[in-house]
Amino acid sequence: MLTVAVLISGTGSNLRALLEAAADPAFPARIVVVGADRQADGFAHAEAFGIPTFLVPFREFETREQWGEELDRQLRVWNPDLVVLSGLMRLLPASVVDAWAPRIINTHPAYLPEFPGAHGVRDALAAGVTQTGASVIVVDNGVDSGPVLAQERVAVLPDDTEQSLHERIKPVERRLLIDVVRAVASGELQLSAVASDAAAS
């Protein structure tokens, strides 16, 4: 059984979907802990499912590196097989990425490498494109630059706002995330092989 830690910053809608999927006895992964960099509303989902939580408040540390050291320490208490970034709005320090890679994955509301960064949906609208998408990637030390594990296109409608477009992307993100976690847990998807292929290319 694959053990998973999920890191959040906000409402945790992807976390909720993953918790619901993992509640099925046939699902080959279990969430063992949920962590956050601030007091996040998404903790309520963890509590509803009886999942332990931990908080490493970013603003209580002098540097990103010190925050990362404590985050890494908390993760090591649980020693998960996989770390999922689910709306964590902080770039992880290289020390954390290096310690857990390639076992850290993230979702992004764009069809990477298109529109990386914190405003993928807004940037897609500003560019006037007719389609964007959702992606699940391996986290590396760049900004949304890791190997793509799964992605799917989402149409941009003429009257879309940032909110309406994001609301249509979110269900795709959730479905892709669940599919990737299932594939990793079943052995169908080997993260180490994906990372090796990316490094060689």
Task: Give a description of the structure.
40% of the residues lie in helices and 21% in strands. The chain has 201 residues and is α/β, with parallel strands linked by helices. The protein folds into 2 domains: 1-100, 3-Layer(aba) Sandwich (Rossmann fold); 107-201, Formyl transferase, N-terminal domain (Rossmann fold), CATH 3.40.50.170. The protein has a 7-stranded mixed β-sheet with strand order 3-2-1-4-5-6-7, sandwiched between helices. β2 (29-36), α2 and β3 form a beta-alpha-beta unit. The radius of gyration is 16 Å and the shape is globular. The model has no long low-confidence stretch (mean pLDDT 95). GO terms for molecular function: phosphoribosylglycinamide formyltransferase activity.
List the helices and strands and how they pair.
Blueprint: E1 2-8, H1 13-22, E2 29-36, H2 43-48, E3 53-55, H3 64-78, E4 82-85, H4 94-100, E5 104-108, H5 120-127, E6 131-138, E7 148-155, H6 162-186, H7 191-200
Parallel strand pairs: 1-2, 1-4, 2-3, 4-5
Antiparallel strand pairs: 5-6, 6-7
Helix pairs in contact: 1-6, 3-4
Give a concise summary.
This protein is α/β, with parallel strands linked by helices and 201 residues long.
